[in-house]
Specification:
7 strands; alpha+beta; five-stranded mixed sheet; 2 domains; about 270 residues
């Protein structure tokens, strides 16, 4: 009797394996592709009728140069602000233009983040940054708006002072098409930033009264945030972005496993 039960179990396992493989082949027709790692791409725009690819390295080089010119040094967390603004623009353009290449002078960006590195990033992308040689009679529009009031003084020094008080709530950017009026608000998730990150930033960058341990902690934290901006999928960074639907092969396989457990429970 025991041998008979074992034979039935073995037969059930064989059948389950057979139908699982058949189901996977039916769903995909081929082997399931390996999951690709996220790769930060260029921002592609049209400038004077010519398609232009802007990389994050292009932006970083420009921002670093302009901040150093403005305040004589470059705060260590500049890269984090550049990466956040760059990713926000990349997402906003993809949502508003839906795969089409926007003209540089059709892009309008309204930022709630009063901070020079992100501001220079946006200005570089739309062609209105200081000392840009490719300026035309018409360019994109960039504004910083705080509590419904436009910030008129966007000098490095002024924005640097304003950035002392930024919080997680300030990481909101509206990207829109000037010609159509269509817009998309990009908002970075609050949990992207560790608890009291900006309090620590104020202590290290501005007050300059932090201990060596606090300075090291700040470096680790902003570096982790920056790595996320450059390496995480949109749904992990931005509000309102949905995680991709799981691979149907995995769903089928899971269903088969559950059915197998049920069948075995019945026949044992």
């Amino acid at each position: 009797m025991k041998a008979k039960k074992l034979g039935i179990k073995a037969l059930v396992f064989v059948l389950i394996a057979f139908y699982a493989l058949a189901a996977m082949a039916w769903v995909t027709g081929v082997e399931a592709p390996e999951k690709e790692e996220f790769e930060l791409g260029d921002i592609t725009i049209e400038d004077n009728g010519v398609e232009l690819a802007i990389s994050i390295d292009d932006v970083s080089e420009y921002v670093t140069e302009k901040i150093e010119e403005g305040i004589g040094s470059v705060p260590e967390d500049v890269e984090m602000f550049v990466s956040g603004a760059y990713r926000a623009t990349l997402l906003g353009i993809s949502e508003v233009w839906d795969g089409e290449v926007p003209s540089r002078d059709d892009i309008k960006i309204v930022s709630s983040l009063p901070e020079p590195a992100s501001a220079f990033c946006f200005q570089y992308i739309i062609g209105t940054g200081p000392s840009m040689e490719s300026l035309r009679t018409e360019n994109g529009v960039f504004e910083i708006v705080l509590e419904n009031t436009k910030v008129e003084n966007t000098s490095v020094q002024h924005l640097y002072e304003l950035s002392k008080n930024i919080t997680t709530d300030d990481w909101k950017f509206e990207i829109s098409s000037i010609s159509t009026g269509e817009s998309f608000v990009v908002e970075i998730k609050r949990d992207v930033f560790p608890e009291d990150f900006f309090g620590l930033r104020g202590k290290v960058v501005f007050d300059q009264m932090a201990s060596e341990k606090e300075e090291q902690e700040f470096t680790w934290k902003w570096s982790d945030i920056n790595d996320g901006f450059q390496g995480f999928e949109d749904y992990a960074i931005f509000e309102g972005m949905e995680e991709p639907v799981p691979d149907p092969v995995m769903i089928v396989a899971l269903i088969v496993v559950i059915l197998a457990v049920i069948v075995l429970a019945v026949i044992i």
